């Protein structure tokens, strides 16, 4: 099967300058890793010369000095003990400002004036606010709200006494429920009650037998010679197997 193909492979010749061959060679050169790193490998073989005063070296050193904590604090450490300025802390504006800010932030000093003056307040006893507070206390006080009834000394046949007894009897829970005492122990049938009547009416509304009337219960006489009856008979005869 492959004998003819093997023989043809030896006779086919493609020109090396055809566009397809040139394109394949260009693609092979582009994807070749060896050609990609060839320049770098040759540069490594030649070596390099990096001077100490080169711009990248100086930039790296400057970045290292800036990032170094020691270099960052070197100027501050040198200035310690050589401060020349005000003789006292009160004369220095920055220190005075810092002390003032600390006093403002101190909660104890902030409340000192209030604690010193809160015991020196004198309010007259007849002030409007004091009188209003007393009235409110009287209104919300439970002791003043409840005044227990004391024993009155009066004649039992006075009109106000009779009226008061009548009012007390009307307000009394025992007297209010005394007319229901005779109902205790008496049986009660639910027949005729509102709920039972309502349930019966709902049952009648939902009853299928009362809602729909059966056709056999309806009294009617069918006319035998109507067109629909005659047509039905003809259709029945045509569809009859007999």
UniProtKB/TrEMBL annotation:
GO terms for biological process: cardiac muscle thin filament assembly. Coiled coil: none annotated. One of its GO terms (cellular component) is Z disc. Keywords: Actin-binding, Repeat. Pfam families: Nebulin. Signal peptide: none annotated. The keyword Repeat applies. The keyword Repeat applies. PROSITE patterns: NEBULIN (PS51216). GO terms for molecular function: actin filament binding. This is NEBU protein. It comes from Dromas ardeola.
């Amino acid at each position: 099967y492959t004998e003819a193909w093997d023989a043809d492979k030896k006779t086919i010749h493609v020109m090396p300058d055809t566009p397809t061959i040139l394109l394949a060679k260009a693609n092979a050169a582009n994807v070749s890793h060896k050609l990609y790193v060839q320049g770098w490998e040759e540069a490594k073989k030649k070596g390099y010369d990096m001077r100490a005063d080169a711009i990248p070296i100086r930039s790296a050193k400057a970045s290292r000095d800036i990032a170094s904590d020691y270099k960052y604090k070197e100027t501050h450490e040198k200035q310690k003990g050589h401060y020349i300025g005000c003789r006292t802390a009160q004369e220095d504006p920055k220190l005075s400002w810092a002390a003032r800010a600390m006093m403002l932030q101190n909660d104890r000093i902030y409340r000192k004036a209030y604690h010193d003056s809160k015991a020196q307040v004198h309010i007259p006893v007849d002030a409007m606010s004091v009188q209003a507070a007393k009235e409110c206390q009287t209104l919300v006080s439970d002791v003043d709200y409840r005044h227990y009834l004391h024993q009155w000394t009066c004649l039992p046949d006075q009109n106000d006494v009779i009226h008061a007894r009548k009012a007390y009897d009307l307000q009394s829970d025992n007297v209010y429920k005394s007319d229901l005492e005779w109902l205790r122990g008496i049986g009660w049938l639910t027949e005729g009650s509102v709920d039972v009547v309502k349930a019966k009416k709902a049952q009648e509304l939902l009853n299928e037998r009362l809602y729909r009337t059966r056709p056999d219960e309806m009294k009617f006489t069918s006319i035998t010679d109507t067109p629909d009856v005659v047509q039905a008979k003809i259709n029945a005869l045509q569809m009859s197997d007999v």
